[in-house]
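Severity: low
Component: inverse-folding endpoint
Summary: output formatting inconsistent between runs
Steps to reproduce: submit the following structure tokens with default settings.
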């Protein structure tokens, strides 16, 4: 896939690189009760369709997903393992250099296209990173000079200074810099969410069951 095709507008990014350890199975492959065109819809397809439905034509998936046909998708493997969402975001920017990104985690089964569209519009108007109150994800992120400086200084310096810590098991520093740390250097705007239930994320079977009760048809 030609990376130049992705740097003209907003790139949709589905974050699906987590280990899903608390869920016990890959969250991206959880099947929704809602029927899609080709049968039941999993969370990966649901997340991609949300991005498509607000007019984003270029979409990539951050992370490797067992059981998915990686040849038919634009998958981006993390350049640095075990760094959480920031590792995925860095790898996507490094590979495609998009003008901006709309980043959606794969574990938001109650997200709506209206909420995502609000985030994208506000971000484009403000030309700043935008996220909802008390939730750093989903995130609209312009790939501007502030973001570039953060990744080329703070992020890479963190990696070089913590090589040993990142290679050790059960080390609290292993997950790397947080999204919060990025906003100490990157201009941003915090938005009020009209439908708070949209931000309900599912990390456990119990939470997934609660979500299913809300979107079942």
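Observed output (run 2 of 3):
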């Amino acid at each position: 896939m030609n990376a130049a095709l992705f740097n003209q507008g907003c790139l949709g990014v589905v974050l699906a690189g987590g280990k899903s350890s608390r869920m016990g199975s890959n969250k991206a492959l959880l099947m929704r009760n809602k029927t899609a065109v080709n049968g039941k819809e999993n969370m990966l397809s649901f997340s991609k369709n949300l991005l498509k439905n607000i007019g984003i034509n270029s979409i990539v998936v951050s992370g490797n997903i067992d059981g998915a046909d990686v040849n038919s998708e634009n998958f981006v493997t993390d350049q640095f393992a075990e760094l959480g969402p920031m590792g995925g975001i860095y790898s996507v920017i490094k590979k495609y250099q998009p003008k901006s990104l709309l980043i959606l985690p794969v574990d938001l089964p109650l997200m709506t296209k209206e909420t995502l569209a609000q985030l994208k519009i506000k971000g484009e108007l403000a030309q700043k990173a935008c996220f909802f109150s008390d939730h750093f994800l989903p995130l609209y992120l312009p790939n501007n000079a502030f973001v570039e400086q953060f990744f080329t200084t703070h992020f890479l310096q963190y990696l070089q200074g913590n090589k040993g810590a990142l290679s050790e098991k059960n080390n609290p520093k292993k997950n790397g810099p947080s999204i919060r740390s990025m906003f100490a250097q990157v201009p941003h705007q915090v938005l009020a969410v009209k439908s708070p239930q949209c931000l309900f994320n599912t990390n456990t079977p119990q939470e997934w069951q609660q979500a299913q009760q809300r979107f079942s048809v």
